[in-house]
Amino acid sequence: MVDGVIKVVDNYARRLVKYCDVVVFCPETRGYKKEDDARLPYKVVRCSSLPLFNYDYDIPTPVLDPVFETLLIRSGIDLVHIHSPFTVGIAGVLYAKIHNLPLVATLHSQYKQDFEKPLKFKPALNIAMDGIMRVFNACDECWAVNAGIKELYVHEYGLKAPCKVRLNATDHRPVQDREAAARIVNETYGIPADATVFLFVGRINFIKNIDFTVRALAGAKAQGLKNFRMLFVGKGQDEERLADLVRQEGLQEEVVMCGLVSEREMLENLFSRAKLFLFPSLYDANSLVQIEAACQSTPAVFLEGAKTAATVTAGVNGYVSAPDEDSYARLILDIMNRPEEYQRIAEAAHRDLYLNWDDVVREVYGEYENFCKKK
Fold this sequence. Notes:
By secondary structure, this protein is α/β, with parallel strands linked by helices. The chain contains 15 helices and 14 strands. The longest helix is centred in the C-terminal third of the chain and has 18 residues, at 357-374.
């Protein structure tokens, strides 16, 4: 998988190797290749995993992998930073506690949402959440990806460990030749040069509310939105469902399914070409893609109540809609009719929301050093 959490870990590790030795403990996943790990600038230790059918992820099984356990024991690490409260993260917590090491966790996700669908029995949901929070409450400090997620964990999930906001960033750089970038995107995906482009990048999963996007755009088209393309970039379990919905809404000409795009330069071109980044997700905590969009001065359109909109000021550096498709459609039309206001907000998105990983990880390493000194 290439998702936000994995990209965060990768960007941390790539930069931390400039300051210290780094080992990333993670599961084997479908399609991974050992030779790919060997090309990484940091060490990777993988544990066995079991496929989870009908989901995009596998279940890591470190307790069933003696090689993994042995390599963890012999690692000689001085600080543990977990990015998941499940099996691999728990292995890290146990190691840190046994060896009295500093233990940090990043709060990436709204886990209650993840469990509410499969665990419809409330006591089972409560047991699952209690287990997750025991992991996070065992940490010396937790880092929330924005103020909204910190509030959620402290006031709703019952986080007792010290918590601060630590914003995510991106390794993308602003496109220097936007016209050339637009030509590349137009030629690759068959887009007219004068078409308005809207963009989504991420897992093609209805949990991200991408079906909402399609219905809202169908409504905007019915209300007069013309000559536009909606680009969905990514892969996931709902690709066929999305294609069916596009046909049902009569948007076959407007919607382009781009598939997975992993090349950074092409992603930068896509974000640069887009007028708006449409991100009505109520599931995400703080997605990296919204920072990648801001890097190219492409403002995002969120929904009221979305935790991932916590870094945005509506009408200043982004847009926030009421959480219904008609309001979302009308906001898109309103944005198109206010070019001067749009330009101001686009520039502010870059100014206020774009952060680079080099700067963030430099600060992170300083905090790691302080944790180690205290221990």
